[in-house]
Design brief:
CATH topology of the largest domain in chain A: TIM Barrel
Number of domains of chain A: 3
CATH architecture of the largest domain in chain A: Alpha-Beta Barrel
Shape of chain A: globular
Strand content of chain A: 5-15%
Helix content of chain A: 40-55%
Order of helices and strands of chain A: HEHHHHHHHEEEHHHEHHEEEHEHEHEHH
GO molecular function (chains A, B, C): glucuronate isomerase activity
Oligomer: homotrimer
Bound molecules: zinc ion
Organism (chains A, B, C): Maioricimonas rarisocia
GO biological process, one term (chains A, B, C): glucuronate catabolic process
Distance between the termini of chain A: 34 Å
Radius of gyration of chain A: 22 Å
EC number (chains A, B, C): 5.3.1.12
Number of strands of chain A: 11
Keywords (chains A, B, C): Isomerase
Mean pLDDT of chain A: 97
Number of helices of chain A: 18
CATH superfamily of the largest domain in chain A: Metal-dependent hydrolases
């Protein structure tokens, strides 16, 4: 395809003001204060560790932010091929005026100091949002988050439910749940009651989605009260459950959440396929991987049982994308959602985007979310996506199918913004 | 690659007269009579339904063809990105002189009326075949099809065996079998006898293939008479079988069919990987999906046991293509067959074609079949394939390996026509 | 991307002197003596057989090398599309001055004779190495190889352990082991002792790696002496083990090897995913295939237990590449290793290379190995890889990310040579 065509479309896509539909932003500290906030992102620590830096060196307790950055810089040369490092360079160039080709021993201190000065400006958070054309940002809130002290119109709450579904067996989870809802979980009915209170609290505070990440071997299914009651009672009595019993409780809680999503008209974001702590000696947040032997057929019963719930679905393994395309092609309530984690690299984004744009109705695709922990990452990550998207629109639609440029750009706008507004009910 | 080179090769491929080796054409009503025949294709109804249109709206009993088209047009805007909709536009442009960019509320009635007039022409079927350069069309015939009243030289019978293998447990299947063969199935021997009669009937009427679609969890294996006899006897006595027992019967029937394919020298088309009725509330023919966790290793014993039977193999999930390439690379009796259903979109056709052209002997590849229900679809579907194929031939062979254009085009001819002739014994 | 850019980078990559980190070269007869040595490579015999030539025709005992070549030439026309045949043409052009477009009935005898003359030159082996810019070549040695009579600086030993892990149950394996080590295997301790002797022997003779190919259903795990002792005792007593018992022995031997890799600081090459003898009627070495339903999660415990052992990993199925990229991204001891067998075709090399270059630290990628049986194959196989790599570097790095050409070329050098030196400790 012609490079100019792609570049023109890319520039148009760059001008779109965004709503980021999934992040891990802390609304009380949304922007970074030092380069350590940015380079402490697990992508850098885990890649530096993978390339040879000992975890103890990276995560030594008590080192200053500047010391931490200095140490990580020692390892960057091994990562300079990665797309993740290109995000870091993009951030430093866009926000801190960095002009080098690489961040290295010779220039990092100057960069550290100048960036710190920049981030100390009072309106830094607003500057980042404005420069990134970022209007609203979805959060990932613990179920017991009070949702207070921030602007829920800008930072949109989202009820994250991993702990409820997969860790109700822990006393700490049940204690947090009791503290948040006043309900002491002792049987199935009390779990339902507590979940209802959480949904009520979240929806009253502007939540627009419920979300969960799920291991490859989980298959949602309804569970009768009679089956689950004795298990929850044993939990409440301090027992530990066997693995299959714990899975039954997980299925019960999961199904309960889906019922509340239906009642409260909340989309239920499913992030399918992660195995936690596969590498327990890894750095913080750098321990999870996956087993590609997972199928959306495991969600067959769920999709059929909740026709009124929209399920925006992310898959961790790239080999799951074809199933996702096909399930979104058939099920009205299945929506493709972004490019998650290990699939979030241009090679796979390109393949997955091409297939989705070709075979999934255009109103059922959420193009991208940043998954960021700090605001500065939205810009380079969305830019990466927009670059790929511009190439697909230019090649497959304008050149391949004779679409006008403006028609292709409108399609891009829908993927980047329009569908987010409609599916989650924000605007 | 140069656009002109690809275009020249594409035009040469477009000039090839086709034999379509797999369709669902009804030879008694091969062409469409209204736009509803075309837009009623499950690709459109299921995508419109997936994009938000209620099934009841699409499938309301008693609505006229024109009303049905009018309703579907309401939903087309959400699908205008899909490759399936591009087929529809291609049909309307090529056959009905349509000139719009989209089919919408403002133009569909005129299109409906003009197309109806065109389709009412007495030689419409011949016109479509001629304009599509389509010479012969393989059918998909129920096992009890009398195969009468049509030209079996143009419309080539193919014995479809899903019902026999997977639904012999239904009384209705056994009744149909008795009616077709005169044999009342009561034990293994009678099943073999009945199957033999079917093969005899089909081959006498020009059948060139046996075919079946298979769920992901099926593994063919021989079954002894001693094992299956009591099961079939129980079926005949009105019993229901347990799932594993029914699977044993399926394996027995399947193996019996393979033996007759060997005896009658019929290729056995295997379409591997479909789960039926995953979404039972979906529209007609829009309910099936798949589980990608299937492997051709499940067919190891079959491929070894029947060296004289050619198995043209289609896989439903794109992630099965590499296995297919590798098994066709090793097994003399395994042939790659087209791009099936959920894999039948340019992104995947391109990847799969590139790998097949690089690693499977050229005489063991059937490039494409349309899978159409109405004749008008051959043109846009084969055109989509030919466009992709032209790109692969231009990029990987002419530019990448220095082949002459004519050599690349000859290769394309073999994939599109020559291998179909030789493998199925038609010409 | 611009064709000139890619070509310039390709030429630079072509000039790199190689160390080939995995081959099946016989150091006592490294180069070919007739075209039959080259065309007898299983890629040609199995493809010719797959395309229709009977095995008996190809492998008839007693036929002369020339007769064998003549027979294979009859079948080449069906394979002329395959990338494997392009290697053959490359060899004939580069080494024997062949100028035809195809090898056929009209020219093969002249080619045979002229090539034989060439290969008879006294320094043919050196000529091939020099012309291929090949400096060192890793071998694949049986565990009982005396490693004598060749230059272990040029031909680097590698301890291949399939027989030990998967065939210790055969009396012949235990006899070979006894002959090689003087130890009669009778219990777990003697197995450990014997393995230690093998490592000692190999390392003293310059071995730089331990290697094994593994079926898809194998999961490494530690096994206690108490568990395995009775099993090995029964083996020594002449018993046959049940499948699950044999798997326990395999796990024990495998884990023992990993422990010695740790002690002797040898990388442990894992080639994951092959099913042996799937097509037992196939030609020699043309009988193996795979089941894509394998996951690197099966190696979780191994990777955690041996942080000091580097595991260069090859995967047989292309759908395993994303897991490999992700595991190499997280685990410091997991390294991506080349493009193996059924994945070793440009379509898949391109996809896999793009994803690895984007997401795996650059010091953890071994770009390519030839897997060759005769020296003449290094040139065309590495050239194929370098062509793909040049395209990825030109497109994704120079054009996509604004890298200078020299920076991209340095990256390519590291993938092709630098990492091989460092990871295996050769230079
Ligand atoms: Zn997240
Ligand atoms: Zn079909
Ligand atoms: Zn090898």
């Amino acid at each position: 395809m012609s490079d100019q065509l792609r570049e023109r479309i890319f520039q148009e896509l760059e001008s779109i003001t965004l709503i980021d539909p999934h992040t891990h932003i802390n609304p009380h500290a949304a922007a970074s204060t030092t380069l350590a906030d940015i380079m402490g992102y697990h992508y850098y620590t885990e890649l530096a560790h993978s390339a040879g830096m000992p975890r103890e060196h990276i995560e030594e307790p008590g080192i200053s932010p500047k010391e931490k950055v200095g140490r990580l810089v020692e390892g960057l040369a091994h990562l300079d091929n990665t797309i993740q490092l290109s995000w870091l360079l993009d951030i430093c160039r866009e926000f801190f005026g960095f002009e080098g080709e690489t961040i290295d021993a010779g220039n990092w201190e100057a960069l550290y100091d100048s960036s710190q000065q920049k981030m100390a400006e009072e309106d830094w958070e607003d500057q980042v949002l404005r420069h990134s054309r970022l209007e609203k940002v979805f959060l990932t809130n613990d179920f017991d988050d009070p949702l207070e002290g921030f602007d829920t119109d800008r930072y949109i709450p989202c009820l994250r439910t991993d702990d409820l579904v997969f860790h109700l067996g822990k006393a700490s989870t049940r204690q947090r749940l009791e503290k948040a809802t006043g309900i002491d979980v002792g049987d199935a009915a009390s779990v339902v009651l507590a979940c209802g209170k959480l949904f009520d609290h979240f929806v009253r505070n502007g939540a627009r989605a419920c979300a969960i990440s799920i291991p490859p071997d989980f298959s949602p299914a309804p569970v009768t009260t009679g089956t689950v009651d004795p298990l929850i009672q044993r939990l409440a009595g301090g027992d530990e459950l066997a693995a299959e019993e714990a899975a039954t409780v997980s299925r019960f809680v999961f199904w309960t959440l889906a019922e509340f999503c239906s009642e409260y008209k909340l989309p239920f974001d499913l992030m399918i396929g992660v195995n936690r702590a596969v590498y327990p000696s890894g750095v913080y947040q750098g321990q999870d991987l996956f087993d590609k032997r997972v199928s959306l057929i495991q969600y067959r019963e769920l999709f059929n049982a909740f026709p009124k719930v929209t399920f925006p679905i992310s898959v961790l393994g790239q080999t799951s994308n074809h199933e996702l395309v096909s399930y979104a092609w058939i099920f009205p309530n299945v929506v493709t959602n972004g490019h998650w984690w290990y699939s979030n690299i241009p090679t796979y984004i390109e393949q997955d985007t091409r297939s989705r744009l070709e075979a999934v109705p255009r109103n059922k695709q959420i193009g991208y979310y940043s998954d960021m922990y700090k605001l500065e990452f939205a810009l380079p990550k969305f830019r990466m996506y927009r670059r790929v998207l511009a190439g697909v629109l230019a090649g497959d639609f304008v050149q391949g199918r004779g679409w006008s440029e403006s028609r292709a750009i409108q399609f891009g706008q829908q993927l980047l913004r329009g569908n987010v507004e409609r599916i989650f009910g924000v605007n």
